[in-house]
């Protein structure tokens, strides 16, 4: 039996903003499971969503975070441990410096005006598709990282496909993208 994170909605992002979300895959069964593919169905164009698969040595959020060359001082050990103790039924999200209450947090690099592409080049991460299978022993869990870079305005829905030896698990990935002009004319209270 496998448990895969179910909460996969990024919420509302401003155009140009980027957020990361961790999807946990936990083997609750008695036999090892092999993740042989991890990809997006390709429903959303312009690379609004992408997948990062941490290297084998990065089987924890701590190792993943340490591979990203930015300031981590605000991310406490307790916050990281809360991810490790997760039962696998909800999605946990983190970025390099903070965790927000709704489970999805902004990518600080983009808010500081740095390029997401530059950041990606420095990370030792596999993108989009798995080339070799990843074995999940009984009682263990792994994670993949979904990145939403808000480029397409409106509501976007993508399908994440996790392929195992004899079955596939799918999760919808969703985000709503707005721009500054829309926020300026948005109603401040309900019409009565």
TrEMBL record:
Magnesium keyword on record: no
Signal peptide range in chain numbering: none
Top-level taxon of the source organism: Eukaryota
Record keywords, A-Z: ATP-binding, Cytoplasm, Helicase, Hydrolase, Nucleotide-binding
Subcellular location per the Swiss-Prot or TrEMBL entry: Cytoplasm
Gene Ontology cellular component list: cytoplasm
The keyword Nucleotide-binding appears for this protein: yes
Entry GO MF terms: helicase activity
Alphabetized PANTHER family for the sequence: CANCER/TESTIS ANTIGEN 55 (PTHR45418), CANCER_TESTIS ANTIGEN 55 (PTHR45418:SF1)
Protein name: M10L1 helicase
UniProt source species: Dryoscopus gambensis
């Amino acid at each position: 039996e496998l448990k895969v994170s179910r909460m996969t909605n990024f919420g509302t992002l401003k155009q140009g903003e980027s957020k990361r979300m961790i999807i946990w895959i936990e083997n609750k069964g008695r036999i090892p499971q092999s993740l042989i593919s991890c990809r997006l169905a390709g429903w959303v164009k312009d690379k609004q969503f992408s997948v990062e698969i941490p290297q084998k040595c990065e089987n924890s959020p701590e190792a993943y975070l340490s591979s990203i060359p930015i300031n981590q001082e605000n991310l406490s050990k307790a916050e990281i441990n809360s991810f490790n103790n997760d039962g696998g039924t909800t999605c946990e999200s983190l970025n390099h410096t903070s965790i927000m209450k709704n489970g999805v947090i902004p990518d600080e690099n983009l808010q500081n005006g740095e390029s997401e592409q530059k950041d990606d080049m420095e990370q030792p991460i596999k993108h989009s598709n798995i080339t070799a299978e990843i074995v999940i022993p009984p009682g263990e869990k792994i994670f993949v990282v979904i990145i939403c870079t808000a480029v397409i305005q409106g509501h976007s829905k993508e399908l994440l496909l996790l392929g195992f030896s004899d079955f596939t698990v799918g999760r919808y990935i969703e985000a709503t993208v707005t721009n500054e002009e829309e926020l300026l004319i948005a109603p401040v209270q309900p019409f009565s």
